[in-house]
Amino acid sequence: MRPLVRHTGVVFPLDRANVDTDQIIPKQFLKRIERTGFGEFLFYDWRYLPDGRENPQFELNHRQYRGASILLARRNFGCGSSREHAPWALEQYGFRVLIAPSFADIFFNNCFKNGLLPIKLEESTVQELFARCSAHSGYQLTVDLQQCTISDDFGLGLTFQVDEFRRYCLLNGLDDVALTLQHEQRIAAYERQHGII
Fold this sequence. Notes:
This protein is of the alpha/beta class. Helices cover 32% and strands 16% of the residues.
């Protein structure tokens, strides 16, 4: 998992509430046996027309949002089924930070396990960020996980809260496997002592 310490990126404003995991990554793409390659299918039913061409009406296809790495959404983002493919698709597309007033619980937890930082902010603050996106083409935010701050080039200064253990894992790029492997020598010693290996 890639560490996330300080990230500056273009903001993609997805002005929708209750975006569920089937909209993030539709069910027909869950048959893949690899854990990679999901980014191209992110928001598939919105990004593409039935004939496979890009949908010019969907904002993520607009030139100003190409390469966006911070997603701004409305409440209850990631609701629906608990598929871990949703954060995989977001991360593999290129998103590192998600900002919304609220997230579905399982999705929220899965984000941290897959190198994404979901940030909960008040609805009024999220509304202000949507307004700033409208006012400034190619609007960017800087998210500093060490300081737990969000800033822009127009005087914005916000703070956010994140669980300290989750913050540690993201700062150091540690998923569950990497956390376990930090104790590899002790695990091997235990296995030797008990005749497991």
